[in-house]
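Fold this complex.
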Amino acid sequence: MANDERALIRRLQTGEASAFRELVENHKRALFNLAYDLLGNATDAEDISQDAFIKVHRSIGDFRGEAQLGSWMYRIVVNLCLNQRRKKALSEMELRDSFEESELHAATPASDHAADPEKSTEAEIMRQHLRRALDQLSPQQKTIFVLRHDDDLPLAEIGNMLKISEGTVKSQLFRALRKLQEALAFYKADLV
Amino acid sequence: MNTSTPCKRYETALTAKIFGELNAGTERELNAHLGGCTACRNFLTEMEVVLGKLGAPQRPAMSEHFWESYWPRLTQRLEKEERVAPDSILARWREWLHEKWAAQPLAIPLARTAGVLALLVCGVIIGHYWWPQNNDTGRQITPTIPPAIPVAQTRAEQWLERSKILLLGVVNEELTVESKPDFSHQRLVSRNLLTEARTLDHELDPVMDRQMLQLMNHLELILLQIANLEAEHDLSAVELVRDGIARDGLLLKINIAELAQQNMAPKKAKRKSPEIL
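Structure:
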């Protein structure tokens, strides 16, 4: 841990208001982006990132510095996002039935974008199709994929963050890749 | 349309290679394998295309005003939550006391002593009016009917038992490609249990049944995973579910909860027995 981070933590733990503001200004974009990558909604992303800061504000006294401050806050955001998705899944019973339905819907990716001339390039349609396929992954698979691919976190750190082994991270990531590969199969004829 | 299915043995190595996290030893072994395996080679090529097409994440370009007003919105929320939180009221009260009496070093110990004395006086008054009624040894003891165990609690115990049976089934299922395990029944049971859990969440007492609710929360995560299993042959997902059950010690926790409930039942009966006699 860097010295200035240690100093910031000490200032936070003594309740210095300017230290908390500094922390928010330094990390607000990263936390917002991570929440957005996981939830795909700007309003939810703002709420979750602010929830995370509030949680940090409340529990900074218990932070022992075993992990980096950034990793700790990332873990808070990931947990809040997983909880949010779990609550949504439970309340809407968004289980496989609706999943299969949306999968059928996703099988015709070009239809809803063809009307928009700006987005109707083949590459953009394919990108949107693959991004939609990401939404069909299980919450854990999507989280792992987003943390590795979008946020460039090492596999070991993801394992620590989610409290699972690196092997499990790899096997979940592999399953995510397979699903993306299947989504790409739609276009395979054009690629080969 | 078909996709290339890589060799099972090299799945994690291929994943690590794709994300640039393969160690030198495994890389040598994988490269030797890739030389003779078209399926794994094709998988790597396809994944390069997939990740290339996927590109960087598209995030909304939030306005400068959004970022500038982020801090005021956050502090507003913090203040609002602190107004509601009872511990902050206590903290403010303490702060006020300290500010008020900081100049008088004896004020706080004196206030504490006065508080203790006030509590003692309250205790004496309550005891004076309450004790004679309870100390009346001559009065006839009327049998009282022990309070019925709440229906929600009984249902929660049954829910726990059914979840345990389901988890035992998942843990003990033979997992080989040849055995072709079919989890459609377990998925259905999980869904029913999840639906029931939602009702129980509202019916159970958050204070009295706190431990039961916590255990149910843990179980709901695993049940959700089971409910989301592929109907057939989802072997690695089942292994993950099993890992989750083992990691969280869920079966052990259920057994402990059941033992605790069994122990509570005779104690409750014993506590009531003198009055009944």
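The CA atoms of residues 201 and 213 of chain B lie 7 Å apart.
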